[in-house]
Amino acid sequence: MTIAEWCIFGAVMLYLLTIAPFKAAAGRTFDNSKPRDPAFFQDPLRARALGAHINGIESFPFFAAAILLAEFRGAPQNLVNELAMLFLIVRIAYVFTYLGDRPTLRSILWNLGFAINVAIFFLPAVKGYLPG
């Protein structure tokens, strides 16, 4: 498996680990028979964790598709790997800014992550213009 493919797995783990600690730390106040109970997410930090979790789910399909497209269409693997790792680093920072209630920085990081995804997606189209 390539580093970029491991980053796909890392993106899944990131969005799961964004919410799981809050549910686990809640003890009996979290009812697993009602995992989406709005009352549980009334706490501001839990609400932000849920927002980051949902956004991770929303960003995942484009990331996974971009990686697989780039690999299947013969984009330079080193560049795909580097951009995938950069995306994951940006997403980790995004989660921390979401939890830390830093909306402006969070939006900047979201846009940066999206731009990285777009770059990965179009790598096969521009591979003839890249050095090497």
Tell me what the structure shows:
This protein has 132 residues and is mostly helical. It is 75% helix and 0% strand. The protein has helices at 3-25, 44-72, 77-99, 103-126. Helix 1 runs antiparallel to helix 2 (44-72), helix 1 (3-25) runs parallel beside helix 3 and helix 3 (77-99) runs antiparallel to helix 4. The longest helix has 29 residues, at 44-72. The chain is elongated. The two termini are 23 Å apart. The relative contact order is 0.16. The model has no long low-confidence stretch (mean pLDDT 96).
Summarize the SSE layout with pairings:
Elements lengths: L2 H23 L18 H29 L4 H23 L3 H24 L6
Helix pairs in contact: 1-2, 1-3, 2-3, 2-4, 3-4
Give a nutshell description of this structure.
With 132 residues, the protein is an all-alpha fold.
Overall pLDDT confidence: 96
- Gross geometry: elongated
Helices and strands: which structural class? mainly alpha
Query: In percent, how much strand structure appears in the residues?
Result: under 5%
In N-to-C order, the SSE pattern is: HHHH
C-alpha Rg, in Å? 17 Å
How many strands? 0
Number of helices: 4
Helix content: over 70%
Main beta sheet: none
CA distance, first residue to last residue:
23 Å
Low-confidence stretches: none
Question: Tags for this entry?
Answer:
elongated; mainly alpha; single chain; 132 residues; 4 helices
